[in-house]
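Records of this kind hold a single protein each, on a pair of labelled lines. With that in mind, the following record should read easily:
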Amino acid sequence: MSKQELALIPVASAGCCAPISDAALDPAGATEGAAVFKALADPIRLRLFSIITSAGNEICVCDLTPQFDVSGPTISHHLKVLREAGLVDCERRGTWVYYWPVPEKLRWIAGLLAVPDTASTH
């Protein structure tokens, strides 16, 4: 696997782990988390993900590309990385592709990073 590729992560595992504040990750959870955070570790991908997630239902790639100072093929590459990490999904409609966030993956990230209400202060 090249450094640019990410393994596909089954969405079915989206609710598999306890918050890291409650229990350490098992090897599978750590692998899944690393792939997700690797995909989000790029500023363009993080911004794309935030735009897609905050758009509501879905957003057309034609509305995403003008928001960046990079080429269309570069945006396509970053969207592919987000898809491969299971963070977004898409559908082609004619000449345009529409993107939306994968709710199960958002819940997985939120659950993983959840902080208990009774967290003690040090």
